[in-house]
Amino acid sequence: MTSPTEFPSTCLAAVFHDAARPLQLQHLAVPLPRSGEAVIRVDLCTVCGSDLHTITGRRQEATPTIPGHEVIGTVVRVGDPAPLSLDGSALQPGDRVSWSVCVCCQNCERCRSGLTQKCLSVTKYGHELAEGHHSLSGGLAEYLLLRANSAVLRVDPLLPDEVACPANCATATVAAAIRIAGVIEGRRVAIIGAGLLGLTAAAMAIHHKAASVQILDRDPKRLQQAARFCPQVQATDSEQGPADADVILECSGAHAAIEQALAALAVGGTLVLVGSVMPTPPVALHPEQIVRRCLTIRGIHNYTADDLLAAHRFLMAEHWRFDFGQLVQRIFSLQDINEAIRWALAEQPLRIGIRPGRTR
User: Which of 27, 146, 216, 359 has the most CB atoms in a 10 Å sphere around its CB?
Assistant: First the structure.
């Protein structure tokens, strides 16, 4: 445990109140951690599309709130008893950690069935009210309070911040999608959407020895980026639709793309819906075709603790081959958060990062 002189009483946080005004930089109290909790110094927070949806008003959240859930940080103080990492050992000050976006009770019927991310009493980092003991629940701050029952793991020092930071959102979500898709080795895989989810899915499909990987998008710049990031894939304009595929991961959320995907599945194929997290028009569905072609349609939202572990194992094995770090295209300081949001909305990068006190 850190000494009282090293432990801050307050910290800077970017607080969202409503879409009509900028994020407000406020000093909030840093709480003493209770049983099973820890105070984390935020080393880097990357800004996810859902954060931008909240900040621009497309997604409704209880306010005030501190956005940001893709975080890599360092433990500075632990409660008594200390929280346990996924390997069963107690966290200690100095540990470099990542943790699941969702905090579950582990006891309700959904948790017991394996859908921990849909816990009946789930709380989510970056999406909770900034009030009381748990005010510091988002990554756009200098410190964050790790809640009891969080699925937390130590991060290898060889994994760069820019690579590790999105792992508890995009990478773990893709790990969950790959898991429910079934066997990837030797199968033809198509991925719709060349955002961070799509590029991660392409790299993970190659890692799992897919026979071929096609990635589709309407944006020529994103297709060029996909070809640079993952030269092994076939990058295709989505207007052409996917080729005959055994597995299709739909990461764009576009309803027209879902209809294309259903038509393109091979007999016995599986469609996994990943990107449909906002309301869309209905999709035409032909049950007779699903039956005759023996198709499977699955949906995945967020992920389990095992998926988070799988994501980190994948990054440790493959970050040397796929340059995930360059997908975080610019780093801003926390003090420049509103400039950072304006830049992200104008330039549409896959990710930007917020590093308290430092820029790139």
Answer: 216
Strand, coil or helix: what is 207? helix
- Looking from the CA of 322 toward its CB, the CA atoms found within 13 Å total 28
Q: What is the DSSP letter of 334?
A: G
- At 8, list the tokens: 């801050």
Q: Is 291 exposed, middle or buried (0-12, 13-18, 19+ CB in 10 A)?
A: exposed
CATH number of 10-160+319-354, picked from 2.60.40.1080, 3.90.180.10, 3.30.420.10, 3.40.50.300: 3.90.180.10
CATH number at 174-299: 3.40.50.720
Q: How confident is the model over 189-234, as pLDDT tens digits?
A: 999 999 999 999 999 999 999 999 999 999 999 999 999 999 999 9
Q: Confidence band (pLDDT; 50, 70, 90) for 240?
A: confident
pTM above 0.85, yes or no: yes
Measured in degrees and rounded to the nearest 5, phi and psi for residue 283 equal: -110, 135
**Mean pLDDT on 91-113:** 96
CA angle 55, 251, 267 (to 5 degrees): 160
